[in-house]
């Protein structure tokens, strides 16, 4: 039996608003973030889910409860938290100014002092960007490509086991993590190059097949387009 997975990105947070690096560190949802999520929750209120899951970070947990409270056709019990679906870890850069962080990473990648992350990734590629992030991190704690891929694979395998008797589930995760999943599992991605960053409160839909394969079938859909 295949399981349909609705991947929702959490709402805007204070660190998003303040332009700070936010991976495993956390900050509360903003008023705008909550308002945007309410639109997503309304759009999904008539979609039946057998279960709802979340990353174990608070911004994701707060988001999944907004989805749960608005849904009128699902009977959801306790939310299970899945640490494998946390955001990408940025090591020592967590909480730092995001522009200054990108400049350090760009210089480590052999570029000039560039603060536009999309331009950096376009020039060096997403995988070299991850490696440069780990090297630029003074403590070298940031996740590189291999570490992140291992965590994604472990997360999909765990989700496969948890949802084997479920037809449709909702899972709240994070922008860079969802984007990286799509780079690997979306047929509109070539598996190597960057794609657009998902919006706060957007929905990405995937299918977990009974043979263990995972595929993304819709990416970064806003509430108005669900």
Automatic annotation (TrEMBL):
Substrate binds at residues 9-16, 59. GO terms for biological process: negative regulation of glycolytic process; regulation of pentose-phosphate shunt. It comes from the Bacteria. The keyword DNA damage does not apply. SMART domains: PGAM. GO terms for cellular component: cytosol. This is Phosphoglycerate mutase. Keywords: Hydrolase. GO terms for molecular function: fructose-2,6-bisphosphate 2-phosphatase activity. It comes from Lactobacillus kalixensis DSM 16043. The lineage of its organism: Bacteria, Bacillati, Bacillota, Bacilli, Lactobacillales.
């Amino acid at each position: 039996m295949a399981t349909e997975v609705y991947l929702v990105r959490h709402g805007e947070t204070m660190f998003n608003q303040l332009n700070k690096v936010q991976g495993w560190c956390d900050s509360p949802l903003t008023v705008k973030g909550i308002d945007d999520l309410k639109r997503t929750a309304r759009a999904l209120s008539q979609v039946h889910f057998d279960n709802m899951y979340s990353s174990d970070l608070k911004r994701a947990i707060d988001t999944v409860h907004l989805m749960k409270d608005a849904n009128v056709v699902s009977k959801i019990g306790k939310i299970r938290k899945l640490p494998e679906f946390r955001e990408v870890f940025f090591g020592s850069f967590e909480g730092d100014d995001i522009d200054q962080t990108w400049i350090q990473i760009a210089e480590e990648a052999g570029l000039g002092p560039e603060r536009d992350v999309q331009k950096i990734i376009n020039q060096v590629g997403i995988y070299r960007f991850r490696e440069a992030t780990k090297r630029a991190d003074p403590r070298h704690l940031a996740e590189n490509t291999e570490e992140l891929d291992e965590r994604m694979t472990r997360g999909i395998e765990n989700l496969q086991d948890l949802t084997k008797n479920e037809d449709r589930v909702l899972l709240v995760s994070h922008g860079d993590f969802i984007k990286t999943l799509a780079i690997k599992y979306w047929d509109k991605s070539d598996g190597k190059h960057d794609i657009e960053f998902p919006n706060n409160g957007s929905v990405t839909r995937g299918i977990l097949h009974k043979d263990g394969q995972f595929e993304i079938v819709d990416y970064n859909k806003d509430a108005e387009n669900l």
